[in-house]
Design brief:
By secondary structure, the chain is of the alpha/beta class. It has 24 helices and 20 strands. A 6-stranded parallel sheet has the order 3-2-4-5-7-6, sandwiched between helices. α24 links the parallel β19 and β20. The longest helix is centred in the first third of the chain and has 15 residues. The termini are far apart.
Length: about 600
């Protein structure tokens, strides 16, 4: 005990400190409270150091490195702080690659620390060696291979600044084992070495703000199109002020859900491939599109040259490379979107008369709402999600999702009124995201209600993280919409491939209907038995298929003291609608 206490003491001014201790002390200095870390041979010194800092930094052991990467994202997405994950060299590092790529596409501040073989062994095909910096070069905002222990403190400081300034993103720090073991006198205030990098966010010029205000004043059919950049900039209140001052209807991307209350009259919900009919109609007929913190993703635009073809476009984004990249803007503004909105709100005036336009948008909303068959005798996915929203809306839960049909239905039927309540792998579309992201959100938000709305395909990709939830006392609730199929791929098979099943059925392979044309459900027994699996991991669990039992099962899940899986039997034939086929336009929208 005395030895451990001695090791915990802060080093004196000229005391030698190991590279591992310098790195972990840097995390503490930079405000990190939780790290998701999986040990291995090349990262053992770092893990030994973590034990010496356990009173300052919580280490959570995921059951897979990818789970740790997504859990770190759960922290970042739900709080705005940097998420941190760690893995060993070789397969440990490569298991982080998907989470790193996911963070890059969604602009999430993530620090991924990897152990590496000793510097003398680099390039020799040593045991568990991969050139992870080279592997990740195209999917990181920046990356480091630290070869000198004297650089560790500076590199960590730089990594955090890069991850969080400008357009956020992931930074990789690869640390050879000998650097972790080497010692030096650390300088935690060392000068940064980042020639050409600016930590100052770009700001819209006054004349650009005046241009924007003038365009809004003259518009007859304006629409605001808001995205994840609003969340990242913490600019939701400024956006709401703009809507209040101008009376302009607003639609959001999947990344932007919650930046404006979905229950408000001027909300058109999300646009795009599975967005609302009314949002897509409005954008198509708008004479001014005010695009804020978006990147004109193909899932939003469809056939890009036809997107908002007859309207002028204002595009505000912090990343200059996004301006005019996918869609040319008439008023491109490289700026921190919060600054631009603050300045715009000072001078903006409502358009002279858009009452007819607003009424038209309201009529579209009444005529073409998100809908489902309310008379279906069993539990439909949409109905279950809507019920979850109705029962928990006053509890202000955080919702994570996997990827697929359930993700789109959650975006449609769970009405978000605040930012950072919706955590979704949007750009990369990574199955297996939901459970570990919920785990991270729960760790960062103790006492909050955190749900993972998942499909059985996505859920099984990181199901092992139930063990982490149980062991770390993270009471994540999983609403598992189980249709025994890879639902979204199956939907495309039905719509565009004559219903030919090409390995989208998740049941036993001895079912002949599942391997060719047809819609076989497999044997009567549902497979796998998620209730038994969840209980085997120490979690609470139940199975429900009757509408009359659902609300009681939901209440039991919410009240349960610990992680819980509610396995809900839903039909596999249901499709996410509306749908604009990829590369098409709003005129090709499928409604039924």
């Amino acid at each position: 005990m005395a030895t451990i206490e001695k090791q915990k003491k802060s080093p004196t001014k000229n005391e030698l400190v190991s590279g591992a201790d310098i790195l972990i002390q840097s995390l503490v200095n930079l405000g990190v409270e939780t790290i998701f870390a999986y040990p291995g041979g090349a990262s053992m010194p770092l893990h030994q150091s973590l034990t010496r800092f356990s009173d300052k930094l919580r280490t959570i052991l995921p059951r897979h490195e990818q789970g740790g990467g997504f859990a770190a994202q759960g922290i970042a997405r739900s709080t705005g702080k940097v998420g941190v994950c760690m893995a060993t060299s070789g397969p440990g590092a490569t298991n982080l690659v998907t989470a790193i790529a996911d963070a890059k596409l969604d602009s999430i501040p993530l620090i991924a620390i990897t152990g590496q073989v000793p510097t003398r062994a680099i390039g020799t095909d040593a045991f568990q060696e991969t050139p992870i910096v080279e592997v990740c070069r195209g999917i990181t905002k920046h990356h480091y291979l630290v070869t000198d222990v004297n650089d560790v403190a500076r590199v960590m400081k730089e990594a955090f600044l890069i991850a969080t300034t400008g357009r956020p993103g992931p930074v990789l720090v690869d640390v050879p084992k000998n650097v972790q073991l080497d010692s030096c006198v650390p300088d935690y205030d060392a000068d940064l070495i980042l020639p050409g990098y600016s930590f100052e966010s770009p700001k819209a010029r006054p004349e650009q703000i005046r241009q924007m205000a003038a365009a809004i004043k003259l518009a007859k059919r304006p629409i605001i199109y808001a995205g994840g950049g609003i969340v990242l900039a913490e600019a939701s209140e400024e956006l709401r002020t703009l809507v209040k001052k101008t009376g302009i209807p607003i639609t959001t991307t999947v990344m932007g859900l919650g930046v404006y209350p979905a229950t408000d009259d001027l909300s058109l919900d999300m646009l795009g491939m599975h967005g609302s009919v009314y949002a897509n109609y409005a954008v198509d007929e708008a004479d001014l599109l005010i695009a804020l913190g978006v990147r004109f993703d193909d899932r939003v635009t469809g056939k890009v040259e036809e997107f908002c073809k007859h309207g002028k476009i204002i595009h505000v984004d912090i990343d200059a490379s996004e301006l005019n990249k996918n869609k040319a803007a008439h008023i491109p503004v490289c700026s921190d979107v919060k600054h631009a909105l603050v300045e715009l709100n000072k001078i903006v005036e409502a358009p002279e008369d858009i009452s007819d336009w607003v009424e038209q948008c309201r009529n579209w909303k009444k005529e073409e709402p998100f809908r489902f068959d309310t008379k279906f005798p069993g539990i439909l996915q949409q109905w279950a999600i809507q019920k979850l929203w109705e029962e928990t809306r006053e509890l202000d839960p955080i919702i994570t999702v996997g990827v697929g049909q359930h993700q789109m239905w959650a975006a449609q039927f769970f009405k978000f009124d605040k930012p950072r309540r919706w955590l979704s792998s949007s750009g990369l579309g990574t199955m297996g995201f939901g459970l570990p992201a919920a785990m991270g959100a729960q760790a960062a938000n103790p006492g909050r209600l955190v749900f993972d709305i998942d499909g059985d395909g996505s859920f099984q990709m990181n199901i092992q993280e139930l063990a982490t939830c149980f062991c770390e006392k993270l009471p994540v609730k999983v609403l598992l919409l189980n249709n025994q199929h890879l639902g979204m791929v199956m939907q495309w098979e039905d719509r565009f491939m004559q219903g030919n099943r090409a390995h989208t059925f998740l049941g036993p392979i001895d079912n002949p209907e599942a391997t060719g044309k047809g819609d076989g459900l497999g044997p009567k027994e549902r497979y796998p038995d998620f209730v038994q699996i969840a209980k085997g991991y120490g979690c609470g669990a139940a199975y429900v298929k009757e509408k009359s039992d659902f609300e009681a099962a939901l209440a039991e899940m919410i009240a349960y003291d610990g992680p819980y899986v509610l396995d809900v039997e839903v039909p596999y034939q249901e499709h996410v609608l509306p749908m604009i086929p990829g590369g098409h336009t709003v005129r090709d929208i499928i409604k039924s």
